[in-house]
Amino acid sequence: MSSKIRVRFAPSPTGYLHVGGARTALFNWLYARRHGGTFVLRIEDTDAARNTEQAMQAIFDGMRWLGLDWDEGPEVGGDCGPYYQSQRGAIYERHAQKLIDTGKAYTDDAGALRFRLPRLPLTFDDLVCGHMEIDRSKSQSRDGSPEADMTIRRADGGWIFHFVNVVDDIEMAITHVVRGEDHLSNTPKHIELFAALGAPPPAYAHIPLILNKDGSKMSKRDQGAAVGSYIDGGYAPEAVVNYIALLGWSPKDDSEKLSIEELTARFDFAGVNRKGAHFDLEKCNWLNAQYLMHMPMERYVALARPWIAKAGITADDAALTPVLALVKEKAKFLTELPEWIGFFFTEDYPFLPDAEEKLRKPGALDRLAQLADAYREIAAWDAAALEAKLKELATTHAVKAAEFVHPARTAVSGKTVGPSLYHMLEVLGRERVLSRMARAQSTFAP
RNA sequence: GACCCUAUCGUCCAGUGGCCUAGGACAUCGCCCUUUCACGGCGAGAACACGGGUUCGAAUCCCGUUAGGGUCGCCA
């Protein structure tokens, strides 16, 4: 039996969790879950000056929101800890000493520790990019001189990314390094480091970068770049996971909507593209609406809860569920919910200008009164009966149904747009419908 | 500058030599459904970067050009 797969996501807490990072984490997670491996979270906080507590929290929050749980790492522990590089100094010291003892590293004039690059031709097989052959002797610095020996420890004692990254991958027994393509060109150096440290290199899978829709590099400021913007924007996490999975990976058939279980079952590196993916928020939004529209009611209520509470609406599940069911396929984002359902939970709902206009139209109040009279007497208070009665009334008075529909809708909701009228009336109940109609009549009477 | 990766509709993908007069999805534009707004249905426009090869045959293979991206840090 082959040794157990161990992958890791190694973010640096210097900003917000970026969608690119989230996707790297997702691909690692998917690969681990698919093959029964271990997913490690390691915080690469060697640059004390740039790390922030806030960024660290954003990483944890973002990953948890996306459902990417880690088997080893901060807050969960594990056998290879600590999982913060800032706490692993002794380990790095030990490996650096090994390099110094074997003449593979030396201290330069400025006091920094440098790794003597072998600069030999080298090959490796990337799970995504294929067979790579690199002539290291050809590598040059920007000024045309041969590539300088890599610094592994600063003069001030701070450790450098490439070195600690490799040391930790050895110490944590990482078998597959899945990371952004920006590291493809760094991989030869990393392999040289593995060799110098006497460890076999892991398998590599370099996944394409995520660019803006216009092809420019996606920066933190760009819309949709920060995972936090989805949390705050009222997205369903499963939709965001689905969307970013499709950025650079394809199930090879025309499936678009894939649950995290399906993603786990179908993910492999053969399906990962080599071309940089352009980020399209519109499609992400569409997918989000699809998820919102089709998810089970219980899940919908759970996701909606925080937004409802934030708007000051207090209602138990029994009261909330039928109301949310009315707008589930209408709202594109959870953030819109309070606006859609607010009038269900207060008698003091506002009348929007266009709604008011409809109620002030000549005859509108008369229709409202006629409808209220008919509804007061109706036997069964359900959508079908309500609709039949309204249409019957329209026929009796020889007018279009719209003559009754608009006054009714605006009177009970204060808006011109909303859920299906009859279902909305059914949920509101006879008592509230009649009192709202009466109130509208007195409010808008000339 | 050196080295590396990439190149199909505006965007995400399918396509691994003949099934391609290139398929799906988002977006756009029509029409239908609906007397709200959405959803949904039907349809339209929209692409193989360019130039050479290889082959009976190329979106698919090779070379070059161009373009985009990446790496070459005492950032990660």
Task: Explain what the structure shows.
The protein is 45% helix and 9% strand. The protein is elongated and about 100 Å long. The mean pLDDT is 94. With 446 residues, the chain is mainly α. It has helices spanning 19-34, 53-66, 89-101, 161-171, 187-196, 227-232, 237-245, 260-266, 281-294, 297-310, 317-327, 337-341, 353-360, 364-377, 383-396, 402-413, 421-428, 430-444; strands at residues 6-9, 38-41, 105-107, 113-115, 122-126, 130-134, 150-153, 176-180, 203-207, 210-211, 277-278. The longest helix has 16 residues, at 19-34. The strands form five sheets. Strands 3-4-7 form a three-stranded antiparallel sheet. The protein contains 18 helices and eleven strands. The N and C termini lie far apart (85 Å). The protein binds one RNA strand of 76 nucleotides through strand 7, helix 4, strand 11, helix 9 and helix 16.
Quick overview:
The chain has 446 residues and is mainly α.
Q: Topology of this structure?
A:
Elements: E1 6-9, H1 19-34, E2 38-41, H2 53-66, H3 89-101, E3 105-107, E4 113-115, E5 122-126, E6 130-134, E7 150-153, H4 161-171, E8 176-180, H5 187-196, E9 203-207, E10 210-211, H6 227-232, H7 237-245, H8 260-266, E11 277-278, H9 281-294, H10 297-310, H11 317-327, H12 337-341, H13 353-360, H14 364-377, H15 383-396, H16 402-413, H17 421-428, H18 430-444
Parallel strand pairs: 1-2, 8-9, 10-11
Antiparallel strand pairs: 3-4, 4-7, 5-6
The protein binds one RNA strand of 76 nucleotides through strand 7, helix 4, strand 11, helix 9 and helix 16.
